């Protein structure tokens, strides 16, 4: 035998690492929210810039047909986030759902990769009571899609963490607020389960931190190397190293209480403001925004998931591409959240290239394959 055990072990190990490269991409893709406005660059330029930044998913609030069209032939998957104002007509009958699809989806699909539609956003912040319209609207739109033979666009609605959760601590005991849990969220979860869709939630550690200044800011900013930046779940004893995971697990616990523990979670908005207009908040600053976004991306790319869900969130959309036109529903006041300047240069250097299993995962898988390989060789 000319090859020693060690040499063949090493060879197989290296070979398996090579084979694994590019194939271990774990769930958890990272996207951006892009709100087109009169002050942002033309949508065609935006689509090509996003492509060159290797951003693979984009969420479009209130998407106009021209913006959806600008993503034709790009490989970027689109989440169309429809405003609450469409709920009454979509809930009224199938023909308005058909009409909506014929004007907003059919002309661009499948050249524009529309992967999901959120019907309504944070309906509990609306001045009118939309709760009885949500499910009928989703069902009408779902039947229209199916009758058009479109099975690959999933439907959901977007909630805001602070408006649906009773508390985030301890995450294992979190529940949705009553009475909306029983009246609206439970039937929605049944619909999501039935149609293989996901739970969409806007989740801002910034908001929870702003309301609870006893939380260390490093815990909200993924500064996991700081010795005191963790919180223990007092019921399960699990240690949490960042507030994002606490909030995700609170949602997962609340879904389990409502009878659905396996529905994927999509974080439709998260971010940190880089400045605030007027009096403003001293924690809304560029340095923190950069630390938050980089920490978030590193965390998602690590593939470690959360203590309650090892695969983590299914997708995360960072809020947002350009400073706006203020946020819908002014939960966080008038602040700037953009990661690009209007001339499309980056405010911070952020690496969006494909989220993949971290080196730890790759090496562990490589090692297992190497051992199997050696057993076969000998
Ligand atoms: C889109 O993705 C496909 C396969 O995933 C690839 O072959 C193609 O080159 C991509 N197109 C662009 C414009 O990146
Ligand atoms: C459907 O609803 C729309 C708007 O609510 C209304 O204009 C239209 O007449 C309705 N169509 C049918 C067939 O009921
Ligand atoms: C949901 O997904 C499962 C497994 O992938 C599949 O068998 C089922 O047909 C899907 N259901 C719908 C309604 O798409
Ligand atoms: C948010 O909106 C409410 C109601 O429209 C308004 O009273 C409040 O002043 C706004 N807050 C900010 C910070 O703009
Ligand atoms: C883009 O805009 C930013 C902010 O206004 C400015 O600092 C930067 O120099 C500009 N870059 C180019 C290439 O014009």
UniProtKB/TrEMBL annotation:
SUPFAM superfamilies: (Trans)glycosidases. InterPro entries: GH, Glyco_hydro_17, Glyco_hydro_17_plant. The keyword Transmembrane applies. GO terms for molecular function: hydrolase activity, hydrolyzing O-glycosyl compounds. The chain crosses the membrane at residues 357-377. It holds the Pfam family Glyco_hydro_17. Residues 1-25 form the signal peptide. GO terms for biological process: carbohydrate metabolic process. Keywords: Glycosidase, Hydrolase, Membrane, Signal, Transmembrane, Transmembrane helix. The keyword Membrane applies. Belongs to the glycosyl hydrolase 17 family. This is Glucan endo-1,3-beta-D-glucosidase. It comes from Camellia sinensis var. sinensis. The lineage of its organism: Eukaryota, Viridiplantae, Streptophyta, Embryophyta, Tracheophyta.
């Amino acid at each position: 035998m000319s090859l020693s055990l060690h040499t063949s072990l090493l060879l197989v190990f290296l070979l398996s690492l090579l084979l694994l490269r590019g194939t271990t991409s774990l769930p958890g893709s990272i996207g951006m929210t892009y709100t087109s406005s009169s002050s942002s660059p033309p949508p065609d330029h935006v689509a090509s810039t996003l492509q060159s930044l290797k951003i693979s998913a984009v969420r479009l609030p209130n998407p106009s047909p021209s913006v959806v069209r600008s993503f034709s032939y790009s490989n970027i998957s689109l989440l169309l986030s429809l405003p609450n104002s469409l709920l009454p007509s979509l809930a009224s009958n199938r023909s308005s759902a058909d009409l909506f699809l014929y004007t907003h989806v059919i002309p661009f699909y499948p050249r524009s990769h529309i992967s999901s539609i959120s019907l309504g956003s944070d309906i509990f912040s609306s001045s009118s009571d939309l709760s009885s319209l949500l499910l009928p609207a989703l069902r009408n739109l779902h039947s229209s899609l199916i009758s058009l033979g479109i099975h690959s666009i999933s439907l959901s609605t977007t909630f805001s963490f602070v408006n649906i959760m009773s508390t985030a601590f301890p995450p294992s005991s979190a529940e949705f607020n009553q009475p909306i849990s029983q009246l609206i969220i439970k039937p929605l979860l049944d619909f999501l389960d039935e149609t293989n869709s996901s739970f969409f939630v806007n989740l801002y550690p910034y908001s929870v931190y702003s309301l609870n200044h006893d939380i260390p800011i490093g815990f909200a900013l993924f500064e996991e190397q700081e010795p005191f930046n963790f919180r223990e779940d007092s019921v399960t004893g699990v240690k949490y190293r960042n507030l994002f995971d606490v909030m995700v697990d609170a949602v997962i616990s609340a879904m389990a209480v409502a009878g659905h523990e396996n529905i994927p979670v999509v974080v439709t908005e998260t971010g940190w403001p880089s400045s605030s207009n007027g009096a403003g908040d001293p924690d809304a600053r560029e340095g923190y925004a950069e630390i938050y976004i980089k920490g978030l991306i590193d965390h998602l790319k690590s593939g470690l998931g959360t203590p309650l869900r090892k695969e983590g969130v299914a997708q995360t959309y960072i809020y947002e591409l350009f400073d706006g036109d203020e946020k819908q529903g002014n939960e966080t006041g008038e602040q700037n959240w953009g990661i690009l300047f209007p001339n499309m240069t980056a405010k911070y250097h952020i690496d969006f290239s494909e989220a993949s299993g971290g080196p730890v995962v790759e090496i562990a898988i490589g090692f297992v394959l190497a051992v199997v390989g050696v057993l076969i060789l000998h």
